Amino acid sequence: MMKEDKTLSIGGLSKLTGCNIETIRYYEKIALLPAPLRTQGGHRLYSNSLQKRLIFICKARGLGFTLEEVRNLLELINGDYSCDEVKHLVLEHLNVVKTKIDELARLQSSLELMASQCAGGDLPDCAAIDSLFEKE
Amino acid sequence: MMKEDKTLSIGGLSKLTGCNIETIRYYEKIALLPAPLRTQGGHRLYSNSLQKRLIFICKARGLGFTLEEVRNLLELINGDYSCDEVKHLVLEHLNVVKTKIDELARLQSSLELMASQCAGGDLPDCAAIDSLFEKE
DNA sequence: TATAAAACCTGTAGTAACTACAGAATCAAG
DNA sequence: CTTGATTCTGTAGTTACTACAGGTTTTATA
């Protein structure tokens, strides 16, 4: 028995992937997801391979890749990619993520410092605020 | 001797704050930075108090506050704010930042796992990629 | 089978926080 | 006084979507 190709409506695909309907149509518009077949009434019907492609897109987005990065990954995969190339993109992205974490961590310390300088209470006077008005 | 009020052109202000010119005009357009006086030719002239206000905006943005949050902070400060109110906003924002750090940290692990599954080499076959095409 | 409700269609506009022009006017230096 | 740098306004583009409006199709129920 062969696995039949269960097509899905856009709503079904949305449920499957967690990606919402307008977003799916948006991905089609920017040619990230190929245009699917239609019913004779014009409703979209997604084949199994399109379903997989959207799953990929959503997961990669969830990992913080930009749409352009996702596009690159998909092109790589559709051509004859090498594991090296993929790994390269992943590691590059990993660096972006690490940098963001560092920035946020610095930011966290600044905010904590700010909160600690803020004595609290009703007084209209706050060292934390004052410091924000000074250059340097 | 009183401190004179050294006005700045928009370019000077841009240099002082590191905020670029179009952004300064943008802040004016959205009424975050009040409209400054003009030369008779129509060029903007920024008073000391506007300079301070922009410094504040830039610093708060640098701390990751959204423009709306910055607007709230400024209103608070211009009204008769209490230290409590400010502290509240700061702590709230601190939570947002912490949450973002957590998310990114999770993302970092996923990417590290992905990279480690990627064997490297020229082979067009990658467990890391394959996993992205599966649901769940 | 008729009809009503749910899902879907296209196209446009809005979101955040800017950036990037084009084409004209003004300012500062020599 | 001229030339080059700066500034002016206004509009459109960016990223990654979301939110309509107003109409058609599909599906479920009576």
TrEMBL record, chains A, B:
It comes from the Bacteria. GO terms for molecular function: DNA binding; DNA-binding transcription factor activity. The keyword Cell membrane does not apply. Pfam families: MerR, MerR-DNA-bind. InterPro entries: DNA-bd_dom_put_sf (IPR009061), MerR-type_HTH_dom (IPR000551), MerR_fam (IPR047057), Tscrpt_reg_MerR_DNA-bd (IPR015358). Keywords: DNA-binding, Transcription, Transcription regulation. This is MerR family transcriptional regulator, mercuric resistance operon regulatory protein. It comes from Neptunomonas qingdaonensis.
